[in-house]
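Hi! If you just cloned this repository, the fastest way to understand the data is to look at a raw example. We've pasted two of them here, unedited. The first protein comes first, obviously.
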Amino acid sequence: MPIAVATIIATGQAPAEADGLILLGELAWTALCATPRYPADVAASHENGFSRIVVPEASAREASLVDGVEILPFANLAQLAAYLRKEIKPLPIPPQIEDEEYIPPEMSGIDFAYIKGQEHVKRALEIAAAGGHNVVMMGPPAAEKPCWRVPYVQYYRR
């Protein structure tokens, strides 16, 4: 998204008034797509002196959890360009629901404690899960993935 906005400004499609504006999110064709960890990124931006932060519309509620910043949600690149040209105002942020109660997901009853050995494989899976990564383990279908296959474990970022 930042590269697309820089291109819009460089080609004269919008004035260069994006100073002090943080752009969080990814661009898929023209739609703005969410990425994980918005509260942490918003808090870090605020600590570094930025108060206006552009986020995808789908992530506005999550990003607004940090106090003291102005969240500017947009659904697509055209809306963001129109905002930079001062043609439109940002979309309203959905209100926080105070009564909403967190219900934890059902646990399947499977635990790494039941798996004996393979400590380095379990550790790799825990790290991947904690970081929100996908894991692909190589080997024939329905077969165990022995420890000598661990170097072939590939990590892909979502």
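Ok, and the second one:
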Amino acid sequence: MFKRFSLLVVGLAMTAACSAHPADGAAAPAYTDGQQYATIATPQRLDPKDGKVEVVEVFSYGCIHCAHYEPDVEKLEKSLPKGVVFHAVPAAFNDAWLPYAQAYYAAKKLGVKPDAHAALFKAIHTDHYPIRTIDELGDWYAKNYGLDKAKFIAAATQDPAIRQRILDDGKLIQAWGVDGTPTIVVNGKYRPTQFKDFDELNAITTFLVDKELKGGK
């Protein structure tokens, strides 16, 4: 996982997988607090008003591990049961990653198709296009999704709601104790910490989701 350099005090002021359900007759895997996952000292949800169990992926387009995890997190999202909602939150751990967080929210604001998410990972980490700045991101969205580059840059860099969202994300990520990506946070309470591969990350996540659906038991 990518270890943070320093949380961006956005002092612009700035992990079966498809379904970790056991096979018929098999015992569900048991995971232990303090070993495979950590309990967050002060639980805090991304959306306190939504009554559904939350699964949040903290990611960055700048993180190659997130690019490798993308197919697996898509499987995880599709496998989540009713009563569970998935969110992705971009981490702006450093100045190099800030444009990616701005771009994520600008693309959402401007209605870019959801498939742009995986496509951008591919462009950066598989095709090795030099996409690092807001200007380069604007070119990519304009070329591949017909976005007006000027509107994209304005939204990414000047929209006060996006600016505030990145600030709020930074505080929440810090409160969750996230220091690398990709990281999964379940209902603002639990964070998988030790896993051998992305299949196990998804399995631990599903275990924690089931725990929350059962009232934390």
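That's it. A detail worth noticing about the second one: The radius of gyration is 17 Å.
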